[in-house]
Amino acid sequence: MLGAETATLDSSGEVTAVYDMSGVVPEQVAEAASSFVGDIMQVPDRSVLPRSGLSTLRFRPSSFCSFTAQRSAPRSGLSTLRFRPLPCNAVQVIEDFGRLTDSEETAASIGVYDGVHVGHQAVINQLLSEAERLGVAPAVVTFDRHPALVLRPENAPKLLNSLHQKLELLDAAGIEYVYLIEFSPDRAHTMPEDFVRQVFVKRLRVRSVVVGEDFHFGRARLGNIDTLRKFGMEMGFEVHAVKLLHHDEEWPEPVSSTAVRRALAGGDVRTAAAMLGRYHEIRGKVVLGDRRGMAIGFPTANIPVSMAMAWPADAVYAGWYTRPDGSRHMAAINIGRRPTFYEHAQQSLLEAHLLDFDGDLYGEEARVEFVELLRSEHRFDGIESLVKQLRIDVALSREILSAEPSG
């Protein structure tokens, strides 16, 4: 805690010392935070900083905000919440709703927010405007997993981003608080009115709720915009519905996480990027491969990716590769089963060849962005024909990426 020392070195422990902070101004806190280079367990208490100054606080993605707390007695179905460290930047991530007894008023939105695509961003922009108009904190209520993993696990969609990535994106969008709810079978059976009263009214002290016009919630998706407006009139909060967006006037389907997944499945990473508002990104740790690429003059970073994540179709792409130090490199990327070398590979692998790079990437965390589809993957009749095509892929990647923004 800012101005206090605790036995546990976080805000959950017994206070062992208190320091006079009356002379400390927000600029000093921001300056100290900007030069921080170690790991942290919590962010400074937002009550000491003006909301307009919070954008200057940015902690390393590997840092964690810990909200560990003693489980309390059941409270209207909220006792199923789990407490565990979660990655975050400036945004505060809260899982224990019991800590919200004295929370500030909010303008809030709710949703899965998978992908945080341009439709989500339109909702967030309206939410930020509402929060500024009302002088309250902008907050998002989301879930620790995709609801389909609980409701219909056999048909659960591939995820566009991990929970870590989603929190980063919400932080970058300007959200101050993320209230993370464990989506369980019990939660799925909560009636719409009970959910609104428990979460929006009692816990978040919501003044305004902003959602997409197709929003549904509660048991069997019984709640919608009309029922939410009815509850708002009864319980004292406003409701604003944001119209669905189309990334292109000629494109009939509105922007949605499903539409992004469909574009990726077809290898159409340009359309996916238009709907996401950024390039689709896959993250993972570089592992040791069979070194075939190095042997033929095209070394690659091999990155296995969780099968729970949405991949672009097996093909060759031009894209960007970002290292942990922040350096960004042009790359020719292959996703596939390498049919020239393996006849019956069981799983696709992501291989990225960094242009104009000579170094060791093994063990590093990689971030790979997909810019444009180059060609489909196919089997070559020998190493010579493969190398010839790889040279073409590299040259085309360089041409495409030289015309793209690099950051």
Describe the overall structure:
The protein has a six-stranded parallel beta sheet with strand order 5-8-7-6-9-10, with helices on both faces. The chain is an alpha/beta fold. The protein starts with a strand and ends in a 5-residue tail after the last helix. The protein is built from eleven helices and 16 strands. A hairpin with an 8-residue loop joins strand 1 (4-6) and strand 2. Residues 34-89 have low confidence and may be disordered. It has helices at 26-34, 118-134, 148-151, 163-173, 185-188, 192-203, 225-235, 257-265, 269-276, 292-295, 383-402, and strands at residues 4-6, 15-18, 64-65, 86-87, 92-94, 106-110, 137-143, 177-181, 206-212, 238-242, 280-285, 301-303, 315-322, 328-336, 349-354, 365-376.
Describe the structure using short key phrases:
six-stranded antiparallel β-sheet; 407 residues; single chain; 16 strands
Q: Give the uncertain stretches in residue-range form.
A: 34-89
Number of strands: 16
Please tell me the overall pLDDT. Answer: 78
Structural class: alpha/beta
Helix content: 25-40%
Radius of gyration: 24 Å
Shape: globular
Sketch the topology as an H/E string, one letter per element: EEHEEEEHEHHEHHEHEHHEHEEEEEH
Largest sheet, described in full? Answer: 6 strands, parallel
| Strand line-up of the largest beta sheet | 5-8-7-6-9-10
How many helices?
A: 11
What share of the residues does DSSP label as strand, in percent?
15-25%
N-to-C span: 35 Å
Give the SSE map.
Elements lengths: L3 E3 L8 E4 L7 H9 L29 E2 L20 E2 L4 E3 L11 E5 L7 H17 L2 E7 L4 H4 L11 H11 L3 E5 L3 H4 L3 H12 L2 E7 L12 H11 L2 E5 L14 H9 L3 H8 L3 E6 L6 H4 L5 E3 L11 E8 L5 E9 L12 E6 L10 E12 L6 H20 L5
Parallel strand pairs: 5-8, 6-7, 6-9, 7-8, 9-10
Antiparallel strand pairs: 1-2, 3-4, 11-16, 12-15, 13-14, 13-16, 14-15
Helix pairs in contact: 6-7, 8-9
